[in-house]
Structure formats: structure tokens, C-alpha cells
Write a structure and sequence with these properties.
Blueprint (H helix, E strand, L loop, with lengths): L6 H12 L4 E5 L6 E5 L2 E7 L4 H14 L9 H11 L6
């Protein structure tokens, strides 16, 4: 899949995460993005100062590493998730 870095794509990825068991938060600070599990609370934290391209790249990279439950997702989000899961980012 060819990724076009738009706010619309970021919103769609955020919708996929919202339908999963993870909570997405944008926080300020000088840290790298990532995800963590705190006492069974699944949280994804993205640096709010990242560029749009940086946020999308981090989220797509995380989607490739996380095992998300697709049974709760809408058909539209399932399709996008499968496309993003097959995407290799060129850095």
C-alpha cells in the first residue's frame, strides 16, 4: 500500500486503535513513541510534537507489532488494518 500522509489517514488509524483494547494518548516530552501495558491497561503513547508523518509511521509500525482483535472492528477498518499490516515503511 502506498501511504499518503494526511490528517484523514491519521484519523482512520486512530479509529482502528479506538476499536481495539488499546488507549491512544498524545503526550509532550522528548521520548520515542511506543506502547506499554500497565497492569493490564494497554496504552499507546505518541509524542505530540512529532510531525504528521512521524505519528503515522509510529502508529503503522505499532499496528504491525500488536495483535489486535479484529472481531470488534467495522469492515472498513478491518480492510484498512489488513492493508496497513502488509505495508513496509520506507524510512
Amino acid at each position: 500500500m502506498n501511504i499518503k500522509y494526511t490528517k484523514s489517514l491519521l484519523n482512520k488509524i486512530e479509529d482502528i486503535i479506538a476499536e481495539s483494547d488499546y488507549t491512544l494518548r498524545y503526550e509532550k516530552g522528548n521520548f520515542k513513541s511506543g506502547f506499554c501495558v500497565l497492569k493490564e491497561t494497554k496504552i499507546i503513547i505518541i509524542n505530540k510534537y512529532f510531525t504528521l508523518e512521524g505519528k503515522i509511521n509510529c502508529l503503522v509500525d505499532l499496528l504491525n507489532t500488536l495483535a489486535l482483535d479484529t472481531t470488534k472492528m467495522t469492515d472498513k477498518n478491518k480492510k484498512l488494518f489488513s492493508e496497513l499490516s502488509q505495508t513496509e515503511l520506507k524510512l
